[in-house]
Design goal:
The chain has helices at 2-33, 37-63, 73-100, 104-141, 152-179, 197-238, 243-277, 282-300, 302-313, 315-332. The chain is an all-alpha fold. It has one domain (45-332): Up-down Bundle (Rhopdopsin 7-helix transmembrane proteins). The longest helix has 42 residues, at 197-238. The protein starts with a helix and ends with a helix.
Length: 333
Amino acid sequence: MSNQEGEEVRSSFNRSSVTNQTKDDALTCDHVYRSAYLFFVTVHSLVFLVGLPLNGFIVKFYFCRAQQKASSSITVYLKNLAAADFLLCLCLPIRIAKYASNSPTVHSINCNFATAMLFLNIYASIMFMGYIAANRYLKVVRPLGTHILQTVRAAHIISTATWVFLLAVTNAFIILSFHGQRSSTSVPVRCEGSSNGQFSSLYKMTHTCSTIMFLSVLVSLVFFYYSTARQVSLAQQRQPASSSSTKLAKSRRNMLVLVSVFCFCFVPYHLVLLPKAFRWSCSWSTFLHYATEVTIVMSVLNVCLDPIIYFILSKKFRTQIRLFGSRVTVHNT
């Protein structure tokens, strides 16, 4: 009996030692992490100050004017992309507060709510950019007909289903993160540093699924661009100076801009996503933390780069920009 009790005591001591060692390692890494926080505060603040009014103008254009009723499927996707970008801007103040403050309350709000909402809107942007690319691709391969997926009704159904799916996953993640919290006397830098082992497994599984979803969209975008470029090449060989060749060349340019913005904003983050989730040591953790924070900044820059997509894909938006520019010029003179 005494041997059994001794084994239990030693086992409990070992588990406690491992837990304490893990916490000590996290604190050591966290001490290194905080040295670059001024940079992240500054960059996120600049993105917020530029992105909020810019996307506020776009949301006003799409939702508060005569544009309220979408006339095409591409308009539906652009409206949803604009909504995702605007909501992403609204998530930035809490992220800025996380870098600027060492408050346990700010840390809890950021990890249990703001981060989940941030990535909800990032992945909404990823999905809607994929839908926009698919829509443009179908227009190239079926110039004289309308595929069922190009109808306004289908676009509304797909958009609603996307939001419902992402909101359901996000809500489940938020609920589980609250239940998975462990008490701590210090404020860890990494959100996963304040969760128990079971939530860490969920964290890895979530990142794996997110990476698979991202890769699916990325492969689709590359296929759409390659197919569009091939159609342009064939058309130019048949009739180099025809109007159809010119339209196809414009479609290829638009697709290239879309793919370029997508790759710049989202590829770097997903290159470090899985290594970060499955990191092994504090030295790797330090590098991957910096890499993740920098690539999240690149993902957030999406709110400043997406207006390029609205401009090249929406004639009405271009007209509105020109009218706004002319009003500003007249007012200044």
